[in-house]
Amino acid sequence: MSDLFAGLDVSTQSCKLIVIDYDEKTSIFLDSVNYDRDLPKYNTENGARKEAGFGVSESDPNMWIDAIHILFRRLQDKIKADISKIKSISVSGQQHGLVTIDKNGDLSRKYSKLWNDFSTVEECEILTKQVGGEEKMIELIGNTQRTGYTAPKIFHMVRNEPENYKNTETIFLVHNYINWILTGGNNGGIVAMESGDVSGSALWDPVSKHWADTVISAIAPDLKQKLPPVKNNREFLGNIGKEFVKKYGFSTECKIASGSGDNMMGAIGTGNYTEGVVTISLGTSGTAYTFMKDVYVDPKGEIACFCDATGNYLPLLCVSNMANGYEAYLKTFKFDHQSFDEALQDSEPGNGGKVLCPWFEGERTPDLPQAAPIYFGFTKVDDFMTDSLMRALMEGPILNLYDGFQRLPVNPQEIRLTGGISKSAVWRETIANIFNCDVVHVLGEAAAMGAALHAAWSYYKDKNINEIALPFIDLDESSRIEPDPALVKRYKDLVEIFTAVSRRIRGLDADDPFKLFKEFNEKYTEK
Predict the structure, then answer these.
(1) Is 402 exposed, middle or buried (0-12, 13-18, 19+ CB in 10 A)?
(2) Strands (E), 421-486
(3) Facing residues of 289 across strands?
(4) Which of 294, 359, 414, 493 would be 371's cystine partner, CB 3.0–4.6 Å?
């Protein structure tokens, strides 16, 4: 057997491990741990602790470590002595999560605030005011302060848990914490960050690639000394810790790569490292991102200014509500993906102009952490009991994603979809027609695969990323959908209705949505 490389994806709801055989161009191991199901002692729902309070989303970092040990035991059972042939491990981690440890290497705060924690609205407002307003904040960090980012989480700790903050020696993002554990933790673990994940912390400027001292000082005068150094994206941090060598049989020479955030690794795992490719991840939340050689800073801060894991840039749009309303409908009415698709076979794309602003649990883009959903154009009770509601639950999140995506200066040549609902034909068709672009589903676990490919790329210094990754990226060509010109035109009109409703409800200038609704029905309703 040839050189092996491993990718760990420590995500919000599960932890995945993939091992690839580089010479054979195949994966030899893939497994996952679902926190809710497989680690019930942590009492989580969708990976976050239950009953944490309104707007609060937190997890115990020990849960992630337990999941990794479970996966390593399963790997040991599967490939036994061949574990020693794993040359490198790279970690993909959910972005923005705050993990803090004290001088003894113990957690100084029991729980990690996650990316979808909305409890820091006040901190975002105070920080923005302290540095001189939103435009100044964008000048300093290339982004606005959002409740999902790490900076307001730290500030929340400073303001509300001063003793915990005082006891904090080191501040980590999720994947940096996992790297520290893998390289030894209390016994010599490496303290480091890298430019991809740290650019989503709202403490570091992706443009100048330096810490934003003004923002850091506004949070706490001693914060900077608690922040790790920022390493190169292709750098090995060190060797795997002795505990993992002894327990599972890893070689003492197995390297731990810098790793990155899950979106950065998802980009590698979907082949999104050349211009013109857009990746859309369809989960409970949704993201859309693309590769750029030059930095892009959105003057409104709605498109996140991130570095990627290859030394380039990854402008990214994130919506908090993507499949959550849809999945709740499936569960309540006992549908699965196929029966839902079948139920919409005879319904009209565009839904007669009816739209849903799907802000079920607060929203990140647009920045509405206290939002509620808006149903527009539902004219009678029956509309809430038929395929009108079903179609709105599918079209609404895509319209919301596209509404933000239009800010990106990119003309996509191909959209690559990941996530469970990307297997749905009706979702793929609707994305193709709203975005007016070819759509194809990428098979496999994009972030975990991206991490494994990053491990190999970090090891083979003389190879470029495409040479490493291309043989492992599996596009499901049978799922490919091209846009339908007639439906592209119809959805363009529906986008105008959605945008008008979204802007009007936020107090912004917009066309009259009632007039647009009337015109839509006059144009597309069969006489």
Answers:
(1) buried
(2) 439-442, 475-481
(3) 279, 316
(4) 359
Tokens of 355: 């739209």
Total number of residues shown for the chain: 527
Token pair in block for residue 66: 């337990």
Is the pLDDT confidence value at 135 over 80? yes
Q: Please check the confidence at residue 527 and state whether its pLDDT lies above 80.
A: no
Report the distance separating Cα 245 and Cα 250, nearest Å.
5
Using alpha carbons only, give the angle 437, 441, 444 rounded to the nearest 5 degrees. Answer: 150
Q: CA 33, CA 361: separation in Å to the nearest integer?
A: 25
**Domains along the chain with CATH numbers:** 324-406+485-524 (3.30.420.40)
The Cα diameter of the chain in Å comes to 75
Look up residue 105 and give its two tokens: 């290497």
Measured distance CA(409)–CA(13) in Å, rounded: 32
DSSP code, position 471: G
Of 192, 195, 357, 317, give the one whose Cα is nearest residue 261.
Answer: 195
404's tokens: 């933000």
Half-sphere exposure of 116 (CA within 13 A, CB side): 26
Residue 112 forms beta bridges with which residues? 59
Residue type, 490: R
The answer to whether the CB of 352 falls within 8 A of the CB of 358 is no
- 473, 452 contact by CB (below 8 A): no
**Nearest-angstrom CA–CA distance, 501 and 497:** 6
Specify whether the CB–CB gap between 95 and 287 falls below 8 A: no
| Integer angstrom CA distances of residue 18 from 23, 71, 257, 290, 411 | 16, 10, 15, 24, 33
> Could you give the CA distance from residue 142 to residue 413 in angstroms, rounded to a whole number?
26
The sign of the CA dihedral 151, 152, 156, 159 is positive
Q: Which two tokens stand for residue 116?
A: 């979808």
Q: How far apart are CA 97 and CA 109, in angstroms?
A: 12
- DSSP letter for 328, please: H
Is pTM beyond 0.85? Reply is: yes
The tens digit of pLDDT for each residue in 291-339 reads 999 999 999 999 999 999 999 999 999 999 999 999 999 999 999 889 9
368-380: pLDDT as tens digits: 988 899 999 998 8
| Neighbour-count burial of 409, counting CB atoms closer than 10 A to its CB (0-12 exposed, 13-18 middle, 19+ buried) | exposed
The string of pLDDT tens digits covering residues 190-211 is 999 999 999 999 999 999 999 9
Tens digits of per-residue pLDDT, 16-58?
999 999 999 999 999 999 999 999 999 999 999 998 888 899 9
Q: Which residues on adjacent β-strands are paired with residue 154?
A: none
∠ CA 83-89-90, rounded to 5°: 155
